[in-house]
Automatic annotation (TrEMBL):
Domain HTH bat-type: 183-231
Entry keyword set: Transcription, Transcription regulation
Organism (species): Halorientalis brevis
Protein name from the UniProt record: Helix-turn-helix domain-containing protein
Keyword Transcription regulation: yes
Recorded superkingdom: Archaea
HVO-2928 N-terminal domain mapped to chain residues: 3-171
């Protein structure tokens, strides 16, 4: 299997959803699952960011009028759009979306599925002005066809860059999986990082962060303590389970990106 990675870059003002990512670099959306047919695409996305930015993002989902998941349709009316917030914490959302394909211009998942066929596996991430797509393929001959169709379908203000065609990297990560970390503890860690609790010198105290995210200081302290204990346990567990020749020097052990 091979991994085909490419990035779509957006100019400001082209798409209202991407504009929010451009204006708020800390906002991030990672695809958890995506399914495409000749008629529609469905996806689950994990969206993280500051509380007020996520509120704006959620509000924007409810009033989308232009396609933002398809190529070549910037400014075109949405054919049919549906979404639901499946999970919500102060600093994250799990979002389900479903969107019909438009006449003549299709989503990137649709283009990929057309050329790859059954068994399509994709990942995607939005951050800043970039929307990066990762495809797992077993036939390199499809890469050129996918690239050509996506490139030809891009509207003004969008550009495509091929990052790599290589052995799989993003699909073989054996690092931490935050699914086992309770959402409240994950949100507490995200807030601590966002507001500089771990910076040197420390930018904000736990009390000031607790006031900002509107939780009791003792609750925030407990959640961070539990999250830090989980991180430490996971780190040690992953380190000890590695083959000896993976880390010949204990001091060289690093968390995987």
């Amino acid at each position: 299997m091979r991994e085909f990675v490419f990035t779509i870059e957006y100019e400001e003002g082209v798409d209202e959803v991407m504009d929010l990512f451009i204006e708020n670099p800390e906002l991030r959306a990672r695809t958890m699952a995506v399914h495409a047919t000749s008629e529609s695409i469905w996806r689950l996305a994990h969206v993280t960011g500051p509380k007020e930015v996520l509120a704006t993002f959620e509000d924007l989902l409810g009033r989308i009028t232009n396609c933002n998941e398809t190529i070549g349709m910037c400014g075109s009316p949405v054919v049919e759009w549906d979404y639901e917030i499946l999970s919500s914490t102060p600093n994250s959302r799990i979002v389900y979306t479903c969107q019909q394909e438009g006449d003549g211009v299709h989503s990137i998942p649709h283009v990929a599925a057309k050329h790859i066929g059954d068994g399509l596996l994709m990942q995607a991430e939005r951050r800043g002005n970039q929307y990066q797509w990762r495809l797992l393929i077993d036939d390199e001959d499809t890469v050129g066809a996918i690239y050509d169709e996506v490139d030809a379908g891009l509207c003004d203000g969008l550009s495509i860059t091929v990052e790599r065609l290589s052995d799989p990297e993003c699909w073989t990560d054996t690092g931490f999986h935050d699914d086992d970390l309770p959402p409240e503890q994950q949100a507490a860690l995200e807030a601590a990082v966002e507001y500089g609790y771990y910076e040197t010198p420390r930018r904000n105290s736990l009390q000031s962060i607790a006031d900002t995210i509107d939780v009791p200081t003792s609750t925030l302290q407990y959640r961070i303590t539990r999250a830090e204990a989980w991180l430490a346990t996971e780190f040690v567990s992953n380190s000890l389970s590695a083959r000896p020749d993976d880390h010949p020097d204990a001091e060289d052990v690093q968390l995987e990106a």
